[in-house]
């Protein structure tokens, strides 16, 4: 068992930290909203502290799961950031979906403090976090990965080292690009089925047994059809992720016409007040032109 810190107790981080505590690790947590950290500590075996620095003190590994690049910097760097108290030989793991540039920046800063670093964004959504079935995509040095992989196993069904620093974030970009295209295709399919006068629930059941099967079809097809979007992965977060993808594509020369289109469609959803709607709300644009 390890002494660990977990920084960021949102819909993903809270359950992930809970799995670490349930596995027997000694867990200290920090959250920007202190009441959330205190509630987590009351419900789990662990303790809430007032700053990232206090959370990271004496930890073998520090896990971060916050919103974006700047949020990561705010809890890692500075006099009250986690890195200020991390001991040499410990490892910082960033589960935030962020840029590959940030991963490289943090790896260099950590190295100057003789601290390891692994960029480790996750996929699987809130259900995956709650059920301990996340897919974790990692970049970094093999020895740093080897030190934290057994700890990550508490909430992962798969945890894979994909290459040097930044490789985890780049792989998460691939993941989000694939999802964006599938969600738009599914939205058009559901919309078409309804306009064709078909029994949409029956159609979803049938095509889900063939080549059209996907996680999105299984988990979002029927809620799309019913116009239910008040759960799941928020549009504003997907726009953040697609923005990272498009920025990286401009750097590496990849052509992403579908991703650019879907990003524009999500901007229209946001304009309709759907910033916190689930990403499956793309169908709203088709049903309500």
Detailed description of the structure:
- The protein is of the alpha/beta class and 289 residues long.
- The chain has 2 domains: 3-164, NAD(P)-binding Rossmann-like Domain (Rossmann fold, 3-Layer(aba) Sandwich); 170-287, N-(1-d-carboxylethyl)-l-norvaline Dehydrogenase, domain 2, CATH 1.10.1040.
- It is built from 13 helices and 9 strands.
- It has helices spanning 13-22, 34-43, 52-56, 69-76, 100-112, 125-131, 142-152, 167-195, 200-207, 215-226, 235-252, 257-271, 282-287, and strands at residues 3-7, 26-30, 47-48, 61-64, 91-94, 116-119, 122-123, 134-140, 156-161.
- Strands 1, 2, 3, 4, 5, 6, 7, 8 and 9 form a 9-stranded mixed beta sheet that branches.
- Helix 7 (142-152) links the parallel strand 8 and strand 9 (156-161).
- The chain is globular.
The fourth-level CATH homologous superfamily of the largest domain is NAD(P)-binding Rossmann-like Domain
Strand percent estimate: 5-15%
Q: Give the N-to-C terminal Cα separation.
A: 55 Å
List the helices and strands in order.
EHEHEHEHEHEEHEHEHHHHHH
- Estimated structural class: alpha/beta
**Radius of gyration, whole Å:** 20 Å
CATH architecture of the largest domain: 3-Layer(aba) Sandwich
| CATH topology value of the largest domain | Rossmann fold
Please provide the count of β strands. Answer: 9
Secondary structure tally, helices: 13
